[in-house]
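Annotated sample (chain length 324).
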Amino acid sequence: MLIDNFSRVISYLRVSITDRCNLRCRYCTEGIFPFIPHPEILRYEEIIRFVRIAASLGVRKVRLTGGEPLQRKDLAFLIKEINAIDTIDDIGLTTNGVGLADVVEELRDAGLRRVNISLDSLKPERFSFITGVDAFAKVVRSIEKAKEAGLDPVKINTVIIKDFNDDEVLAFAEFARDREVQVRFIEFMPFGEQALWDSSKVLSSSFLENLIRREHALRPSLDSHKGPAKMFHINGSRGQVGFISPMSSHICRECNRIRLTPDGKIKPCLFSPTEYDVKALLRGGASDRELAEFVRDVVRAKPEKKLEGGTIRKCQRSMRNIGG
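Output written by the structure step:
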């Protein structure tokens, strides 16, 4: 079992398999942070070995992210190999959804169990402005295909930014109700384009929850304890809305995860610049035992909290470089 110095059990691994993406989202940015050179990206066999070692230490849940993970070839192979690890019982995928519809059944058959789809506007023209691509219809089709494929629940990740897309909060709640999906509102975080980030543009989860409650009755979900989102059923529908509060709340005491970046760094905390180079060990002949001890040491170094002194610095890597 992996336990940090603050008695948190680490059972969740997020693996970013690429920093490439087919969108150019304004709050993620492509211009400031260059792509990682291809030779520095972890190979599938290195990822599989790392996941196998992490699983032997107690990791049970794996989520594949990017960049856009569907930009990398043979994703079904990677999912199948991870699914073959006996103690891994949950494999998820975070995607922008543009290409998901065409491969969702193949990924499901390989072992994919759930999917998170990023969507920050329900207005096609605004979606194109935010992402730089006219692909709104493709994302909506992917949401429906994921539901048809039996992935449950289908989660929609939505970043709400003041004076940018905050006029769509109620529309997203109704989307969750009508489509019977989970829409999770994520507070705006300091990643990506410098000109866009401004703490005054953060709308707190409590503000968004109260806004929705003016129009819809919300009932707490019994599954809220299973992740960082505070989840609610809306108007008796199977659809839900949820709130993830990395900026306004200290969710750190419930953190059960570590991240593996595309270039083989372990990040024990999303908001910390501190990273640990496991790729050097993977490519340097380290034994499984040495790798396992390295992971234990990294987990023990996991900080108690993400913030210090009530302030937060602009992060030095984009979310695309780190992995969502």
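Annotation: The chain has ten helices and twelve strands.
Annotation: Confidence is low (pLDDT under 50) at residues 308-314.
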